[in-house]
Amino acid sequence: MRDQKKLEELNEEINQITVVDEATIINENLYNEILDSEQNLDAALDRLQKNETDIVLYFPDNILETNSYKIFTNNDELFQTLGYSTYGSSLINQSALITVNDPQLISLLTQNFEPETIVVRDNGVQDNIGLERLIIPGFSMLIFFLSVFISGQYMLQSVAEEKENRMIENLLSIVSARSLIFGKLLGLSGAVFTQLALWASLSILFLAIGNSESISSAISISSLPWQTVPINLVFILLGFLFFAAVMTGVGGVGTSYKDSQSLSSIFVILSVLPIYFITILISDPNGVVAQIASYFPFTSAMMFVLRNSISELSALEILVGVTINIIYVLIAGVLAEKLFKLGAIMYNRKPKIGEILHVLKSN
Amino acid sequence: MNSIIEISNFSKSFGKQKAVSDLSFEVGKGEIFAFLGTNGSGKTTTIRCLLSIYQPDKGEMLIYGQKYNFELSKNIGYLPEERGIYTRVGVMELFMYFGSLRGIPQKETKDNALNYLERVGLIEHKDKQISQLSSGMQQKVQLGLALQHSPQLLILDEPFKGLDPINRQLFIDLFRELRQQGTTILYSTHVIDEAQKLTDRLVIIDKGKSKAYGSTKEVRKSQGSENMHLSFIGELPKNPKLFKSTQTNRTAELIPVKGVKPTTILKYLIDNNLEIINYSLDYPSLNEVFISLTNSNE
């Protein structure tokens, strides 16, 4: 049994425990050569000072009113003393369990139950909302943030630094702006997704060599909604391409990497807006807020990843989501190329709003 | 003339500001052609439009008979005015990177780079980081990048900018060697002394408009009668009724006022005790032409 196991583990680390049980709640059968008792606290503390005992557990007579007991020890190591508190609680639990004779009842009292919460939707669909339901959304969002925002920053740095160190014009005489942007995107995608693959491999390796039994007992891997993963990956890729395009345009317009970073913060804030409404979005993934955010260019991909992970999107919604995100990527790509061409060789000054609007309107 | 570059009626504006108006010139095969103008006169804009970095508003800009495309870039070397270079990479690494962008085989890139570094005296720096090189050395590396694929046409925007006299001469010698090998060079500058020594033909622009175009001699000849070039000891007397003068140490170019004969001026100088060491009559120097043309509208 779990409490018994804890007691045995602690007993291995300490030589003597003394109990002062004014409330008479500890069962006498639990005392042994390691666990003894004292009638009063002073005597017990005296023994503690003389190192005749390692811990004094003091259960006062009003323990039921105060819900509190004291542990005295001469060991000031934080993590060990934290363990002593579980020792006292385990002792109380064991004392209570000894009085129960029914083995089935003891089993019920000592087992860890894992409730499974199922939400029955209006349409009769049953959604499992156990802890494991958060694994796929959690990982998806983590990958989204890592790939989209971190790599977006890499893209920004790459464009802005080349502009800052005046390499751009040299490069543009050899390759077209479109080829240069596309090449950067391709290289960056390769780097980011290799990085992600490496992290995923390490995680799998870690799970394989770690305590996989305890993980599999806590999480039912097979019950995870794996079918959502491919769709999430599609939205992550689209979000990555969209954000990289935005950062290309911003990098082209800024006068330096630092300046471009300041400019990019506007778009980063726009993109992470859903985080501020995360509780609303999780509690109602198909509500008005979620719907609006799903079609706003800067939050669309992230919202579809989130909604696809925590609720069941219809095939039509997924199709519309993918289509609209492809359109956003194409528009962002075209605008980014125009801004890049406008600003890439505009040194020491940013293009004026009028110039930006003019170039965005031009064919 | 077998033209490599043909620019006709080219205009470009930025917003309401007219950068270049109705500019036309041609660059012949194997010649060194200077594109002269003051700062902000439209030289860089013209070159950028020629290379399709900017789009021209009007006119035609052809290289080898076609609008610039990236297929042509295999045969063109370009040195931009805005000098830029990756500073955290090695010299050879940079050559290899640009070589791969141009699709040159690695061995060829390496051999060409080593030959070039040897020629410009940078061979012992080949393994250094760019950031460890002086600005002059970095400029040599940049020129090397423009030359690494042995282009038939070189477009150089202010190639002498920021160079000390020794490196300036090195670049001049290098350009002459390239001309002998058949390379066509179009370069922009406002350093006129080098242009007179180096250039076969030229165009002078001011505020985006062409002011003079032709061979160096033609342009000089077109800008007035023969000027007096003299070297002397003493102080050059001034007489605006007879001549204007441009003086450099103990040499001067005197531009006679219309109707005044050189002999009259010579007499005036001798009467004012100027010891003349050398004297010749020649067309106005390119420097004088440049100053008179670019000052005339101000």
From TrEMBL, chain A:
<feature type="transmembrane region" description="Helical">
    <location>
        <begin position="318"/>
        <end position="336"/>
    </location>
</feature>
<feature type="transmembrane region" description="Helical">
    <location>
        <begin position="229"/>
        <end position="250"/>
    </location>
</feature>
<feature type="transmembrane region" description="Helical">
    <location>
        <begin position="185"/>
        <end position="209"/>
    </location>
</feature>
<dbReference type="Pfam" id="PF12698">
    <property type="entry name" value="ABC2_membrane_3"/>
</dbReference>
<keyword id="KW-1133">Transmembrane helix</keyword>
<protein>
    <submittedName>
        <fullName>ABC-2 family transporter protein</fullName>
    </submittedName>
</protein>
<keyword id="KW-0812">Transmembrane</keyword>
<keyword id="KW-1003">Cell membrane</keyword>
<keyword id="KW-0472">Membrane</keyword>
<dbReference type="InterPro" id="IPR051449">
    <property type="entry name" value="ABC-2_transporter_component"/>
</dbReference>
<dbReference type="GO" id="GO:0005886">
    <property type="term" value="C:plasma membrane"/>
</dbReference>
<feature type="transmembrane region" description="Helical">
    <location>
        <begin position="262"/>
        <end position="282"/>
    </location>
</feature>
<feature type="transmembrane region" description="Helical">
    <location>
        <begin position="288"/>
        <end position="306"/>
    </location>
</feature>
<feature type="transmembrane region" description="Helical">
    <location>
        <begin position="134"/>
        <end position="156"/>
    </location>
</feature>
<dbReference type="GO" id="GO:0140359">
    <property type="term" value="F:ABC-type transporter activity"/>
</dbReference>
<dbReference type="InterPro" id="IPR013525">
    <property type="entry name" value="ABC2_TM"/>
</dbReference>
<feature type="domain" description="ABC-2 type transporter transmembrane">
    <location>
        <begin position="16"/>
        <end position="336"/>
    </location>
</feature>
UniProtKB/TrEMBL annotation, chain B:
<dbReference type="InterPro" id="IPR017871">
    <property type="entry name" value="ABC_transporter-like_CS"/>
</dbReference>
<dbReference type="Pfam" id="PF00005">
    <property type="entry name" value="ABC_tran"/>
</dbReference>
<dbReference type="InterPro" id="IPR003593">
    <property type="entry name" value="AAA+_ATPase"/>
</dbReference>
<protein>
    <submittedName>
        <fullName>Daunorubicin/doxorubicin resistance ATP-binding protein DrrA</fullName>
        <ecNumber>3.6.3.-</ecNumber>
    </submittedName>
</protein>
<dbReference type="InterPro" id="IPR027417">
    <property type="entry name" value="P-loop_NTPase"/>
</dbReference>
<dbReference type="InterPro" id="IPR003439">
    <property type="entry name" value="ABC_transporter-like_ATP-bd"/>
</dbReference>
<keyword id="KW-0378">Hydrolase</keyword>
<dbReference type="InterPro" id="IPR050763">
    <property type="entry name" value="ABC_transporter_ATP-binding"/>
</dbReference>
<keyword id="KW-0813">Transport</keyword>
<keyword id="KW-0067">ATP-binding</keyword>
<dbReference type="InterPro" id="IPR025302">
    <property type="entry name" value="DrrA1/2-like_C"/>
</dbReference>
<dbReference type="GO" id="GO:0005524">
    <property type="term" value="F:ATP binding"/>
</dbReference>
<dbReference type="Pfam" id="PF13732">
    <property type="entry name" value="DrrA1-3_C"/>
</dbReference>
<dbReference type="GO" id="GO:0016887">
    <property type="term" value="F:ATP hydrolysis activity"/>
</dbReference>
<keyword id="KW-0547">Nucleotide-binding</keyword>
<feature type="domain" description="ABC transporter">
    <location>
        <begin position="5"/>
        <end position="232"/>
    </location>
</feature>
<comment type="similarity">
    <text>Belongs to the ABC transporter superfamily.</text>
</comment>
